[in-house]
Design a protein that fits this description.
The protein is an alpha/beta fold and 422 residues long. The relative contact order is 0.09. α11 runs parallel beside α12. A five-stranded parallel β-sheet has the order 2-1-3-4-5, with helices on both faces. It has helices spanning 11-26, 50-66, 77-81, 83-87, 147-151, 159-171, 197-208, 230-238, 255-260, 268-281, 300-312, 340-366; strands at 2-7, 30-31, 40-45, 71-76, 94-97, 130-136, 155-156, 176-181, 217-220, 245-251, 286-293, 319-322, 371-375, 380-383, 388-391, 402-411, 414-419.
């Protein structure tokens, strides 16, 4: 039987789709790359914003038109919190809540399976840069976030299991692997003995660099600012395998807004201090951020504080979202909801500032003698600084391969590069 998977949302969903695909293939099913060829279609959904849910419904309609004879199943985060609503869609045959998604690892009829549920695990990846899930779930319960309702409490994978998975991926020719999680700040609290995310990074550093391997690198997924402490600085400075790139879940530059978000465990100015210290260890590095504009009660002064923080941080890109009320979250019922027009205006102002900073960073990269680019297609790849590079000529290089390139110039938010040895 042929099946097809459509993945929406975060890198952890991508990882879990890969694990499900490998498990189904191990049970004799055939993965096809086009929905019209499949008898079974699995949509791995996201619910983090209202737009994500709208996109899910649109894809259900489109998929139903493309292949009206296929059985469409929705799983993932939206399936956990919107099961009745999604079950009512005419194109959908069944909804498998997030808490039952791992049952798909045993086959396409999860309701028939009650025991011996395997853990998520992968040995390959559908993209040229792989993701390894190190942690799932969240118990922090930010006032705006639906994730604790969709993924449950935090659960960490053991360092040894993570290491084995990375080694398997390296043996398949991957040269970049991202360590991903829902909330990396919570990693290791449920392990015995307890550890934190930086302990994991140091463990992997020690184990993976014992013997010579093909050239590879580790990229870190989204971090909370509170994780960027002295231990983080020492770990980043002492690592030989980490990309000089951080992605920060910033959200706001206003302490008042952060308190309302239940994010009072960090102060925005501490991040500016950390970024200055890191520059002494990493003279050149990129920093991205997630920013939420128009949170309930956000005043003009609050917003200006966010703009000031963005201005002072060495950001090279950002994902800027207008606040989106999510069902079941406290913030959805907060007073002083910000008007959509104002949220859109504030999102645009942040994006305009980010574009200036991104252009400055790209110009800085054009002055570098060389970059290490992991090929994603035969002519396009990603640098260690999380900036896309395009080969000036069609050299048709192998995806997953890491290549030394020389940056030539900027073009449409990317770098035009040539291989160093050509």
């Amino acid at each position: 039987m042929q099946f097809h998977i459509i993945t929406l949302g975060c890198k952890i969903n991508q990882y879990e789709s890969q694990a499900i695909a490998e498990a189904l293939q191990g049970n004799g099913l055939e993965l096809v790359d086009r929905p019209e060829l499949a008898r079974e279609i699995i949509i791995n959904s996201c619910a983090v914003t209202s737009r994500a849910v709208r996109d899910l419904k649109k894809i259900c309609r489109q998929t139903g038109r493309i292949n009206p004879h296929a059985r469409i199943s929705i799983t993932g985060c939206a399936a956990q919190v919107l099961e009745p609503e999604l079950s009512a869609l005419p194109e959908v045959h069944r909804v498998i809540p997030q808490k039952h998604k791992s049952l798909l690892l045993n086959g396409l009829n999860p309701s028939e399976v009650t025991e011996n549920i395997p853990e998520y695990s992968i040995s390959d990846y559908f993209r040229s840069r792989a993701v390894v899930k190190v942690q799932d779930g969240c118990t922090h319960k930010c006032s705006y976030c639906i994730v604790p309702l969709t993924r449950g409490k935090s659960k960490s994978r053991s360092p040894e299991v993570i290491l084995d998975e990375i080694i398997r991926l390296l043996s398949r020719g991957f040269s970049e692997i991202t360590l991903g999680g829902i909330n990396l700040r919570l990693f290791g609290r449920d392990l015995s003995p307890q550890m934190d995310f930086w302990d994991l990074v140091n463990f992997l550093q020690k184990k993976l660099l014992i013997s010579p391997r093909q050239k590879f690198r580790i990229r870190l997924s989204s971090l909370e600012p509170s994780e960027l402490n002295q231990k983080a600085l020492a770990t980043l400075a002492g690592s030989e395998m980490l990309c000089p790139h951080l992605h920060i879940s910033l959200q706001s530059g206003s302490r008042d807004v952060l308190e309302k978000m239940i994010w009072g465990h960090y102060a925005p100015w501490n991040l500016i201090n950390f970024s200055g210290k890191l520059k002494a260890e990493w003279p050149l590095y990129s920093m991205g951020a997630d920013i939420l504009a128009g949170f309930p009660g956000e005043t003009d002064r609050d917003f200006e504080q966010t703009l000031e923080l963005v201005h002072n941080l060495p950001l090279s890109y950002a994902h800027v979202f207008p606040y989106s009320p999510r069902p079941g979250t406290p913030a959805a019922g907060f007073p002083d909801q910000v008007a959509e027009k104002r949220k859109k205006s504030r999102t645009g102002r942040i994006n305009n500032l980010i574009q200036v900073k991104k252009k400055d960073f790209l110009h800085r990269l054009t002055l570098e003698r060389k970059l290490d680019m992991v090929m994603e297609t035969q002519t396009r790849g990603m640098s260690e600084y999380y900036v896309e590079g395009l080969l000036e000529k069609d050299f048709f290089l192998k995806p997953r391969q890491m290549l030394e390139v020389k940056p030539l110039r900027m073009q449409d938010g990317k770098l035009i590069v040539v291989p160093v040895d050509r």
